[in-house]
Amino acid sequence: MSTPIGRTRTRGVETLSLDATGTRNALSASLVRALASALADCAGDADVRAVVLTHSGNTFSAGADLRDPPEPDALVGLLRQIVELPRPVVARVTGHVRAGGLGLLAACDLAAASATATFAFTEVRIGVAPAVISLPVIPRTDPRALARYYLTGERFDPAEAVRLGLLTAADEDVDAALAPILDGLRRSSPEALAETKRLLTARVLETFDRDAAELTALSARLFASGPAREGMTAFLQKRDAAWVV
């Protein structure tokens, strides 16, 4: 039976690859479950020093799978799992990242992208809001810069993603950018890494504790709304939504 998550390991670094290329690695219920399971395995394996989250194909993740979406609680759980994992999680991006995929990116501790990557918070264009993914996104980004892309759904490039705080580094060669990062993690005490990560993620986890229930309810309400039905139908039919002027 095929799995949407590929796994390899090199010198203590476990690479998890989103491999559902037929759906552009959209966050389906099955992909969310498989990624959560793989992350749990990494958390319980003392030989894993760090986790790299990457992808097959030209898209890191297209966001929520509109045909098989995960429950909002499941997505919240996955994002929190990445933030709480007692190993650093590093995103490696060489393609497009949209909507919910940016939640995955923001949940990671470090993130690097190649020059071919593009980014967009497209929720407003299909009649919903970036509700659940705001849990890791808002605490880790510049609020004034973020407002433009949350409100317009515009596409932006890796340099802008670095300025926003979504990326640690951007380079023509993403692996060249990641090499010193992974070398540093391999040279660090696993116990010290875990405690240092706890310091860095405390404010993000406060946001989860305070806002997760409210944002989960908001996401469920918006996805069941009339504007969302129109927006998703328009997206699937490759046409403008009715509100476009």
Automatic annotation (TrEMBL):
**Record Pfam families:** ECH_1
Q: Which SUPFAM superfamilies match?
A: ClpP/crotonase
One GO term in the molecular function aspect is:
catalytic activity
Q: What is the superkingdom listed in this entry's lineage?
A: Bacteria
Record-stated family: Belongs to the enoyl-CoA hydratase/isomerase family.
- Protein's UniProt name: Enoyl-CoA hydratase
